Amino acid sequence: MSDSSFDLVVIGGGPGGYVAAIRAAQLGLSVAIVEKRPTLGGTCLNVGCIPSKALLTASHHYHTAAHGLGAFGVKVAGVELDLPAMMAHKDKVVADNTKGIDFLLKKNKITRILGAGSLAGNGQVTVTAPDGAVSTVAARAIVLATGSEVTPLPGLTIDEEVFVSSTGALALPQVPKRLVVIGGGVIGLELGTVWSRLGSEVTVVEYLDRILPFHDLEVSKTMTRLLGQQGMSFKLATKVVAGERKGAGAVLTLEPAAGGAAETLEADIVLVAIGRRPYVEGLGLETAGVDLTKRGFVKIDGSFRTSVPGIYAIGDVVGGAMLAHKAEEEGVALAEILAGQHGHVNYEAIPSVVYTWPEVASVGRTEEQLKEAGIAYSVGKFPFLANGRARSMNDTDGFVKILADAATDQVLGAHIIGPNAGDLIAEIVLAIEFGAAAEDIARTCHAHPTLSETVKEAALAANGRAIHV
Ligand SMILES: Cc1cc2nc3c(=O)[nH]c(=O)nc-3n(C[C@H](O)[C@H](O)[C@H](O)COP(=O)(O)OP(=O)(O)OC[C@H]3O[C@@H](n4cnc5c(N)ncnc54)[C@H](O)[C@@H]3O)c2cc1C
After folding, report:
1. What's 411's domain CATH number?
2. Is 218 labelled as part of a ligand binding site?
3. pLDDT at 68
4. Is 324 annotated as a binding residue?
5. One domain for residues 265 and 306
6. d(CA 399, CA 126)
7. pLDDT in tens, 209-233
8. 141 in the same domain as 122
9. Which one of the listed residues 60, 344, 448, 468 is annotated catalytic?
């Protein structure tokens, strides 16, 4: 017998889970959310997007105050780092955000259940509270939104002291002299940037021959150069084959990815950032008969249905772009489907942002993907160097690149490196969502002088008629 019953029970209170719960409640369903962490918001709010952006912003301010204000005629003397205060800022931002989700759940009359959820068959979920008490809830539909966890590197034990995951790297008690980041993806570069700005010598070791391997190749190459100019070192096409603690730090053994002579690299802190894997521990998937993909993600169809009727899954646990806003879109679409509507996610229009400085933002196809698919395309590119606002900000690195179908001019992808790229991409995401042509963006009036004019000019350039370059 269940202790209570709902239309919908969501397991996992991250961006996928809490957004699905809120949308379902808006549509009149009775909803409970089971979350084992004491705070809501999942990886994103607790140990992901939000704390990393708090530290990226704070370290950017520190670095600008120490090195970047003289050119504006602002003299600053005696800039000092107060790391505990910086961490307190991050912790407050996290606490405020997670409390905000509590408020939203209450506002939408969603029942919050603290504990670890596990599938118990016949539309039931067993919840084990932190004190060991077990209860059961029943639901017409169950949503798995349990997210992901750090992928470990075989042979290295993450102790969160010397060998740290992203979670440890968000809370280091002091600035390491030498930080080695294993993995040149988004998380490694963002956290490497934080500590580099605060004074660490950062070396990124990447197995592939490029950083940001899922991005447009031109973006990868340009970011390698720009981050290199900021002091970051890269060991590309290199694998870490062993690592152990040495004194207060660590020593890693590296080899060329293609094989060859080994070398050693010493570090005070080693950040393992080689990716994230689905988190399904303790969910009882096997007993319930929920199928997984070969890579261990929960297998779903186009409507988020798992192999078991009445059980659905969204977010990182189903794979695809492991991003908070992708999880949120899936949460909304699923809630709408469960309420009898036609929820849908356009996976061609999911932006991805790297919050380094300059920022990187992309949406849609890369040049390499278009070539591989045999799609003829035009390229419209515009440099920030030719934008008045970027010049006034002394932020002239980077470009906007728009890829449009050569025959129809429909926007197929966009890749931006530049100041506030993460905000600038929104306009192009909207264009893709609306099936717009580059000319539609080009003919839209953009305020002057703004960074957004680079988007207009890149769209003009796709048809060979940029004005300011
Ligand atoms: C350092 C870092 C920075 C990131 N930065 C960004 C960014 O800038 N932008 C972006 O879009 N994405 C970013 N991400 C990725 C983003 O955090 C994830 O894509 C997002 O959190 C996925 O949401 P989710 O709801 O699927 O899962 P999660 O946020 O992982 O939430 C899952 C929740 O389920 C709970 N849970 C798991 N199992 C159970 C169970 N059995 N019972 C009860 N509860 C359970 C977990 O405790 C967790 O709270 C970042 C990630 C990291 C690690």
Report:
1. 3.30.390.30
2. no
3. 87
4. yes
5. no
6. 52
7. 999 999 999 999 999 999 999 999 9
8. yes
9. 448
Confirm or deny that 215 is annotated as ligand binding.
no
Co-location of 121 and 179 in the same domain = no
Query: 331 with 16: CB under 8 angstroms?
Result: yes
Domain assignment of residue 44, yes or no: yes
We report the CATH number of the domain holding residue 61 as 3.50.50.60
Question: Rounded to an integer, what distance in angstroms lies between the CA atom of residue 49 and that of residue 300?
Answer: 25
- Domain range holding 296? 5-150+277-339
Distances (CA, A) of 103 to 10, 18, 38: 17, 12, 14
Q: Does ligand 1 lie within 6 Å of residue 288's CB atom? A: no
Q: What pLDDT is stored for residue 397 in this prediction?
A: 98
Of 258, 274, 290, the residue that ends a domain is: 274
Q: What is the pLDDT of residues 307-345, one digit of tens each?
A: 999 999 999 999 999 999 999 999 999 999 999 999 999
Report, as an integer, the average pLDDT of 152-156: 94
Using the mean position of ligand 1's atoms as its centre, give its distance from the Cα of residue 438 in Å. Answer: 35
Active-site residue, 468 included: no
What's the CA gap between 114 and 102, in Å, rounded?
12
- Please indicate, yes or no, whether residues 284 and 270 belong to a single structural domain of this protein: no
342 in a known ligand binding site:
no
Angle at 52 between CA 49 and CA 58, to 5 degrees: 135
Return the best residue to mutate from 22, 37, 49 for the ligand 1 pocket (most ligand atoms within 8 A of CB).
49
Considering the domain architecture, whether residues 251 and 286 belong to the same structural domain is answered as: no
For residue range 107-119, list pLDDT tens digits in order.
999 999 999 999 9
Last residue of a domain, one of 274, 300, 316: 274
pLDDT at 436 over 80: yes
Q: What is the pLDDT of residues 230-275, one digit of tens each?
A: 999 999 999 999 999 999 999 999 999 999 999 999 999 999 999 9
Mean pLDDT value across residues 409-435: 98
398 belongs to a structural domain:
yes
pLDDT at 1 over 70: no
Q: Is 323 inside any structural domain?
A: yes
Same domain, 135 and 18: yes
What percent of the chain has a predicted confidence (pLDDT) above 90? Answer: 99
Check whether residue 194 and residue 257 sit in a common domain. Answer: yes
Tell me how far the alpha carbon of residue 305 lies from the centroid of ligand 1, in angstroms.
Answer: 20
Answer whether 40's CB lies under 8 Å from 340's CB: no
DSSP annotation of 4: E
Q: From residue 87, how far is each of 44, 100, 198 by CA, in Å?
A: 17, 20, 13
Give yes or no for residue 192 CB within 6 A of ligand 1: no
Count of domains for the chain: 3
64 lies in some domain: yes
3-state SS of 132-194? CCEEEEEEEEEEECCCEEECCCCCCCCCCCCEECHHHHCCCCCCCCEEEEECCCHHHHHHHHH
Would the pLDDT of 59 be above 70?
A: yes
pTM: 0.97
Res 385 pLDDT > 90: yes
Ligand 1 pocket, residue 168 CB under 6 Å: no
327 lines ligand 1 (CB under 6 A): yes
Q: In this structure, are 284 and 143 located in the same domain?
A: yes
